[in-house]
Amino acid sequence: MLILASASQSRKKLLENCQIEFIQISSNFDETTIQEKNTFNLALELSFQKANSLSKNIQNLSLPEEFNYESMEILGCDSIFEFKGEAYGKPSNKEEAFIRWKKMSGKFGFLHTGHTLIIGNFDSTSNIFKITEIIKKTVSSRVYFSNLEDWEIKSYVDTNEPLYCAGGFALEGIGGKYIEKIEGCFSNVMGLSLPWLRENLYR
């Protein structure tokens, strides 16, 4: 059984649309405890910590009765947008979102999503989750933005969508019409590389 260690609605929708069976449980890991300047490595470390935090607390979770304890996979993901070497998380306010979009207009950046899959089984006798394998990788996609007028940026920022997204945009939302093209994995930009997940779940 796959557990998505994330509260992300976009990751949830990706898995549902692909008809991958899973349950969603937020890890509640405090991301501020990780200090890493390299965005590529930071995304990977945060994805691991989210999955690992849940694996350590699995015995305290309210899991469905039909849950299969024999084989469990815990998926942790974290996305960070990198623009000109600077990490862009969620903008703190509309002003910051507007300034970022002014910079990004007509240019490109990289969306890094760290993926961690912790595979194991839960021993009900010892009440311990036994890890058998950990698979980790950061998948990066290059995102090209349209040339935008100030009024377009303001109109988008006023929707508040940028305030809830890494990098200040949502490919699957209103911001999709401002993305010229993507080089690399498409679903990765929405927070989860489905080809990566499929390959590793099958393996």
Automatic annotation (TrEMBL):
Major location category of this protein: cytoplasm
The entry's keywords: Cytoplasm, Hydrolase, Nucleotide metabolism
Catalytic activity reported: a 2'-deoxyribonucleoside 5'-triphosphate + H2O = a 2'-deoxyribonucleoside 5'-phosphate + diphosphate + H(+); a ribonucleoside 5'-triphosphate + H2O = a ribonucleoside 5'-phosphate + diphosphate + H(+)
BP terms from Gene Ontology: nucleotide metabolic process
Transmembrane regions listed in the UniProt entry: none
One GO term describing the cellular component: cytoplasm
InterPro entries: ITPase-like_fam (IPR029001), Maf-like (IPR003697)
Enzyme active site: D78 (proton acceptor)
E.C. code: 3.6.1.9
Localization, UniProt: Cytoplasm
Cofactors that this protein relies on: a divalent metal cation
Protein family according to the UniProt entry: Belongs to the Maf family.
Protein name per UniProt: Nucleoside triphosphate pyrophosphatase
Organism: Prochlorococcus marinus XMU1424
Lineage: Bacteria, Bacillati, Cyanobacteriota, Cyanophyceae, Synechococcales
